[in-house]
Amino acid sequence: MKTLLLSASDPAAPAIAAEIIRNGGLVAIPTETVYGLGANGLDENAVASIFAAKGRPQDNPLILHVAQSSEIEKFCHSIPASAYTLAEKFWPGPLTMVLPARDIVPKRTTGGLNTVAVRCPDNDTTRAIIQLSGVPIAAPSANLSGKPSTTTAAHVLHDHDGKIDAIVDGGPCRVGVESTIVDLTDARPRLLRPGGITPEQLMEVLGDLVIDKAVTAQIDKDAVVKAPGMKYRHYAPAEPVVIVSGSREKAAAYIHRHFVPGDRVLCFTEELPLYRDCAPLAYGSEADVNSLSAGLFAALRELDDPAIHQVYARCPVGGGVAYAVQNRLKKAAAFHIVDAEEAP
Ligand code: TXA
Ligand code: MG
What's the total number of domains in the chain? Predict the structure, then answer.
């Protein structure tokens, strides 16, 4: 199959992409978070081809992307008032809500669950594609399963050239990490994945938020969890990643003591001079957490090279968007963290 490359600036692109979606095909779509691998979310066969292209476990459900918040009533029931408030405040934007699913949503889309995740992406081209296709677009991040997410069209082409119908190139993704996921199906709202909408912002609306343990710790592969995707190895380059926490000076001293040729250092731009001999790669500025979230996956993909022995990574501290960056880096590192203030 030849993968068609469409530019989001081409006025004809949305109609061409929508036609492919309506016919059961696969189109990679740009969003403000990461590129998604989209198909008709109500068509079991189209959805099955997403799982096949990604090599994704069948029990890992997909997010349904809608063009406007009023559409969620077609796919969800028993919608709490808080969902409408969140949609009003944060949509279109990097927030996904888990709600009870209506029967119209195939079990293949929900991974067999009776809930469904919905989100309205902040990307005009992609919302136009959804609108024109007349169906909700089911789209996981467009990376191969387990690999770092795709934040440019080139990343998608690398993973899927010749295997999907089309890619809509909308440039690099602004947020760079996947959407925040909040589960609204329990008595208390629960954060399943941190992202561009911060826990602090959610708390302001909801007044209450449980942080699911999959956010902060490694989950056993056989565990029953709220977000099935959280238990799989994720975002991981080929080699082991270890996070080195602590002050700039202590971390640099620790890394210099342990660095061997073949290792790499993933750090902040401010730290590049400290690691001149350690093959450093900066993913953004420590002073600008949005640059870190926007740059993280491209850097992890660049480091996805079997020739690399080990990666020492520096991670931002604090809440807000830094919380999402910490979550993705910790998962890439399988929660392997060394405290440079104390480690020998
Ligand atoms: O930003 C994003 O959310 C991107 C873009 C393309 O929109 N999509 C994305 O999809 O990150 P994916 O498939 O890579 O991650 C979806 C996550 C998985 O961890 C999955 O387990 C969880 O959402 N999920 C989906 N449906 C769910 C449900 N009904 N209940 C709990 N978790 C669900
Ligand atoms: Mg993903």
Answer: 2
Taking the centre of ligand 1 as the mean of its atom positions, its distance from the CA of residue 196, in whole angstroms, is 14
Is 296 a pocket residue for ligand 1 (Cβ < 6 Å)? no
Residue closest to 156 by CA, chosen among 303, 290, 34: 34
Q: Cα of 340 to ligand 2 centre, how many Å?
A: 31
332 lines ligand 1 (CB under 6 A): no
Are 112 and 191 in the same domain? yes
Whole-number pLDDT of residue 222: 72
Ligand 1 atom closest to 38 (CA):
6
Is there a single domain that holds both residue 13 and residue 126?
yes
Count other C-beta atoms under 10 Å from residue 239's C-beta. 17
Residue-number span of the structural domain to which 108 is assigned: 4-216
Taking only the tens place, the pLDDT of each residue in 117-138 is 999 999 999 999 999 999 999 9
Nearest one of 180, 212, 205 to 80, comparing CA atoms: 205
229 pLDDT higher than 80: no
User: What is the number of the ligand 1 atom nearest to the C-alpha of 113?
Assistant: 29
